Amino acid sequence: MNITVIGQRVKVGAVFENELISPKWFKWMDKKYDIKSISMRWKSFAGNAVLTHFSVTDGKNLYELSFNQKSLEWMLNKIGINNGS
Amino acid sequence: MSINTILHIDMNSFFASVEQAANPALRGKPIAVAGWADPEKNYARTIVTTASYEARAYKVKTGMTIPEAKRLCPHIIIVTADPDKYLDVSYKIHEILLHYTDLVEIYSIDECFLDLKGARLSTEEAAVKIKEEIRAQLGLTCSIGIATNKLVAKLGSDMKKPDGLTIINDEDIPLLFSRLPAKELWGIGRRTSERLEKYGIETAKQLGEAPEDLLKAEFGILGPKMKLMGQGKYFDPVVSYYKPREIKSVGHSHTFPEDTYDLDVIRGFMRMLSEKVATRLQKYKLKGGVIHLYVRYADFSGFGMQATLEQSTDSGLEIFNQTFKIFKTGLPLKKKVRLLGISAGRVSKENGQGLLFEEAEKDEKIKEVLFQLNEKYGEFSVKPASVLIAEKFGIKERCAMIGKYYFDRKLK
C-alpha cells in the first residue's frame, strides 16, 4: 500500500446524525467517490478549531478526510492506494 | 485472603494496531509505525516506534532503524505515526474504563491501572467485559493482569500477549517469584539489576529475602521498598482519573532531519524548542527554575547540562538564552549534532511576583498575546524569526511524540 499526502479541499456529502458525522461521498479532481465504509473517526486540534478525521474506503482504496468544525471545510488529507502489498 | 481488585491493561502493539483498525488493507500484514520518514533517503534515520505482531514474527522490534527492519522483513509496510489518532483512541479507551470506576490511572498512552474495589462485577468478569468492549468498539486487543496490587497486576499483563488475561493470586507469588528475574519487576531496570547482581541477587525472590540493611546501603530509601517488591508487596494506590497530575518538568526534543554543524540551524531549532517549552509552561501557568539542555551527536554520544535561574521563567526567549549559553560551553563542535532536547525543571505555579518593572510587564503582555494567537490559530502561527530557519531546514514531524501531558487536550 502506498500512502500519499494530498492536503486539498474537497466537496463532501455527509449525514449529521446522533452526534456523529458520516461522510457519504466526496468529489476530488472532477471525480466522485462513493464511501462504502468508515473504519475510524478521531479528533485533533488546529489552534482552537476541532478537526474530525475519517478513515474511509470506496471499496478499493483508503482515504483520510477531515472536517474543520470551525471553518466547515472538508479536506482530503491522504490516499492509500491498495496495490495488494 | 486478599481480594484481587487491581487490573493492569496493556494495549497490544498499540500504534500499529490502531493503524490496522483504521486501514483494513493493513490488517494481517507486517507493518511498522515510525516517525516521519523520507522514503527518498531510504528511511535511514527513522526508527520503528511500534511493530505489528505480524512484523514481530520476523523479529522486527521497537527501536530498530527502518533499513534494519526491511532487511528482516522486506515486505514490511512503513506507516507514518499519527499521534492525534492514537491519543483519540486512548481517550476512547478511558471512556470505556470509566464506566467501571473512576479509579483509572493513566500510566501511559497505552497502559492503565484500575482498582475495582466495591464494583458490581467481579474483577475477572469486568476484565472479560472490558476486553470485549475494547474489541467491539475500537477493533483492538489488550492484555490484562489481575492481582492485589499494581506491581503484580503489571507483571500479569506482560505474561500473555497478545489478548491475554492473567490472574496472579497472592498464594501464587512465592513460586512465581522464585523463578522470576528481578529485572522483570516494574521499575527494576538494567542498571539496577546489574547492581543487584553484584550481591548475587538475580531473582525476585532473592530480592525479597535480601538483608534490608544491604539494600538500604546500596539504594538508599528505595532499598526497603525494593525488598517488599521482591515479596510481591506494593502499596501505591491507583490514583483517580480526575485527580490533577503534578507536573515536575516540561520538555521537548527533536532529531534533526540531517546531522549538522550549522550554528544557525542549531540555534533555530533551539529557539523553536524553547518556544514549545514556554508555550506548555504558560498553558499550565507554571514557571521553570532550572533549564536543562541535552545534545546528542551524530555518533550517539552526548552531553547534558543545566542552569539554575535567579528567577523562574516561562519566557521562550529566556529559555533560549539560557540553553544557548549552555550550548556555547561545548563549542567549537567536534561532531555534528543529531538531536537537541530542552526542558524546564523545578517548576512552580506562577504568581506574578517579580513583575515590578515596566519592561517585565510589557514582556508578560507580549507573551500572553503570542500564547493566545498560537492557541487560536495553531502552534507557531506567530513565531520568532529564528524558527523560520529551523523550518527551512526541515521540520517534518512534531517535535514531541507522545507525552502524558498531551492529555491536556482533553482538559480544554
How would you describe the overall organization of this protein?
Chain A contains no helices and eight strands. Chain A has 85 residues and is mostly beta strands. Chain B is an alpha+beta fold and 412 residues long. Chain B folds into three domains: 1-167, Reverse transcriptase/Diguanylate cyclase domain (Alpha-Beta Plaits, 2-Layer Sandwich), CATH 3.30.70; 172-230, 5' to 3' exonuclease, C-terminal subdomain (DNA polymerase, domain 1, Orthogonal Bundle), CATH 1.10.150; 250-411, 2-Layer Sandwich (Dna Ligase, domain 1). Chain B has a five-stranded mixed sheet with strand order 5-6-1-7-8. In chain B, 37% of the residues are buried. Mean pLDDT of chain B is 85; it is low at 352-359 and 395-412. The A-B interface holds A 1, 3, 39-40, 42-48, 53, 55, 57, 62, 80, 82, 85 and B 18, 21-26, 75, 77, 79-80, 84-85, 88-89, 374-379, 381, 409, 412.
Number of helices of chain A: 0
Q: What is the average per-residue confidence, as pLDDT of chain B, rounded to a whole number?
A: 85
**Which ranges of chain A are low-confidence, i.e. pLDDT below 50, for 5 or more consecutive residues?**
none
Task: Return the average pLDDT of chain A rounded to an integer.
Answer: 92
Helix/strand layout:
The complex is a heterodimer of chains A (85) and B (412).
Chain A lengths: L1 E8 L1 E7 L2 E9 L2 E4 L2 E10 L2 E9 L4 E7 L5 E8 L4
Antiparallel strand pairs in A: 1-8, 2-3, 3-4, 5-6, 6-7, 7-8
Chain B lengths: L5 E6 L2 H9 L8 E4 L13 E4 L1 H4 L9 H7 L4 E4 L2 H15 L6 E5 L2 E5 L7 H16 L3 E6 L2 H10 L5 E3 L5 H7 L10 H8 L6 H6 L2 H8 L2 H9 L19 E11 L2 H21 L2 E12 L4 E12 L2 H13 L8 E13 L8 H20 L7 H10 L13 H4 L1
Parallel strand pairs in B: 2-4, 7-8
Antiparallel strand pairs in B: 1-6, 1-7, 2-3, 5-6, 9-12, 10-11, 10-12
Helix pairs in contact in B: 4-5, 10-11, 12-13, 12-15
